[in-house]
Fold each of these.
Amino acid sequence: MAVYAEERGAPTLVEAVPAADPAPLGLAAFALTTFILSGHNATFIPDVIWVGLAMFYGGLTQLLAGMWEFRNRNVFGATAFSTYGGFWLSLGIFVVLIETTKLGGALSGPADVANALAWFLVGFAIFNFYMLLWSTRMNTAVFGVFLTLQITEVLLAIGFFLEAHGRANNGWVHAGGWMGIITAAVAWYTSAAGVVNGMSPAPVVPVGDPLWGRLPDFSRQRAPRQRRTEVTQ
């Protein structure tokens, strides 16, 4: 958008600046938070440290990235980042409520907590599944993020369902933790590629081609430029 503003008789051109790509930031926030929680599930990182990341980096930062993707007319990125920002915020506040208020007695014990977490993951696995299908129109790296995340969520859901039915330490949550670490690594790679490729006139780090079709032109455009208007004071 170009706007002419007249001040003291001299016209001034004000040019709107396109927004930068928020995807590398959203992916970095997702990767680090996933790595810390997955390290806990894999039993080599202590508990609780991930909660702060879930609230602010994985949660708030990803939510902001999703809002900026709306600005860039990227419906896929906006939906993905906003949803997983909500995922981390929801998971973080759930744990805080469990530890501080016991949810007013709504959950009777560890079995209820495990069952709740399992259904929570099932819901997000359903969302992630159709996003996985549509990620084939993005690039191979983004597809890899959603593929490894799908496996992670399914493994964790199975593990928590088994825990809810009395099979603690069944190994599925542990396996989900290690799969989550792989997910984080793929997301970090995709984030790093987005940063350096966004700083270069030509791609430097490969992310692969879409596996199916390609995005329509309007989905790759920035916000539409408005026609020039003249503003006088």
Amino acid sequence: MNLPNSLTVARIFLIPVLVVVLLTKFEGAVIFGIGKELVGAAIFAVAALTDWLDGYLARRRHQVTTFGQLMDPLADKLLITAALVSLVQMELAPAWMVAIILGRELGVTVLRSVAYSRGVTIPASPLGKVKMMSQVIAILALILGRGYLQQFFILGQIALWVAVVTALVSAADYYRRFTRVRAHPKVTELDAARRRAAESPREARQPPVDEPRRVATRR
């Protein structure tokens, strides 16, 4: 297993550790003399950093693999889901806002899967990066704002609102592009035909049947 994939797996293993730290009631709310909120924020920050680092290393080292392409987005969704659900349990984030964000993730995943089954890939929305960044900022600020500076909590609330708005707008954009795919089935059939032709080049390159030659008659 290469380094980028190892970072992805490490991020997955950090998820249950994050949940335990945030939701377990430690004596004095400290872990080894450090506040559990600070420890939880540090764990989440490290996990979020591996999200950027594994993709960067995979592209730089030319180590992009099928495992990484499948597990990297899954690890991201698991990390964000665990963190947001923990914030709801800690009464740091409204449940309805978290439900919108997670519902968007589920809906977009279904739309992209259906489109892919028809031979069309819907590219990621540019708003996805804004949403992801606002989610990371919101989670970190809300965790730190509980036990430290009140300004962090206010920043976290603003970032959470940005995440909700971008989630709704990007979901509408995905649905608009999905309806285009449904409205133009011929395009998807053409893409599927091209893929079949690429998978069976011998059949696709069969020479055409010769036309019957005209026999000249002598007079």
Amino acid sequence: MQRTADPIKKLAGFTSVLLLAAAEAMAQDKQGQSGRRIVVSIPDHKLAVLESGRVVKVFATAVGAPHSPSPTGSFTIVQRIPDPTWYTKGRIVPPGKGNPLGTRWLGLSVKGYGIHGTNNPSSIGHAASHGCIRMRNRDVEELFDMVEVGDPVELEGERTEETERLFAPAVATVAQAAAPSMAQPSALGQMVR
């Protein structure tokens, strides 16, 4: 029985390496074709989807904790897995409410890292993950339907001109809406200060 299992294990390992290599090759071929890309600002805990340079959607995220930071750099999406299974040291967690990966996995071209859902939505907005980019399940499901294997992903570790442009205006708009202006017309048409 052991002799039969060893070749099967070797074949399974070889097959998974070939599939990953094929996915990465497809990702490189498709890069830039759609004009779609993802920008993640680690300091802002935000992810933006852009199409031809235009912001389509911005999502809140959790990023890597100080002891397990998110990688930075340019990557691509190499996997799209609905209802993923989580494999960790000596444990397998099937899809479902207890799965730390949530309902979707978008694997990146940096081994072991991805964008995924979570079973801990209170972590969103914080530096709390093991390096992956976490999203609320409903948000990652929406993102999953928007992106494809091969789409580029930029993980920015510091504020840049682009992240200022993408994420700061939303903050300013909220602050402006919350603060009354210095002079507003009253119901009677007079200026109120």
Amino acid sequence: MLILLPPSEMKSELPGPAIEVYTGVLYAALRWNALTKAQQKLGQSCLAIISAKYGVVRPLDPIEPYKEKIDNKKMAAQVAQALDGAESELIIDCRSSTYQTVWQSPVAITVEIKVFTKVNGLKKVITHMSKKTRGEVMHEILKAAEIPKTPQELQTIVLQKFESKLIEGSKTTPWVLEVYC
């Protein structure tokens, strides 16, 4: 399993492991310190944070705080070098649209996590709560008894905490897991 995350605009003022430097709502909701050592080890191996400054970083990789917008063309080769050929049965994509253009994951094994709410029974896109919900979803995945290998197994994990709808991908589009909060 490979989980793609965006960085956080909010960062600590001190250098340290990426998981501690990124302090935004997604990372707060991921609750890294509430995970067991085994779950953190899994997170270290499967979480790939796409950084505007560093390319791909893992949670425990040391980084400096920075304020930088991603230059997709400049960063594409570096990210591709890190992620192309990554051996994974399932890629879970939690990146924002800005960061999705840096590297195209193989659509056949990719599930994009999209977050919505329902108002009067109608699906509505949300922004801020989307980051929080993605962090909570990542926490649940890292805590799961089994590593999901298929979109359906991923949905089974997510359904333990959230209503969701799985939409099958095509030859040109990835799977989508709509998560409702």
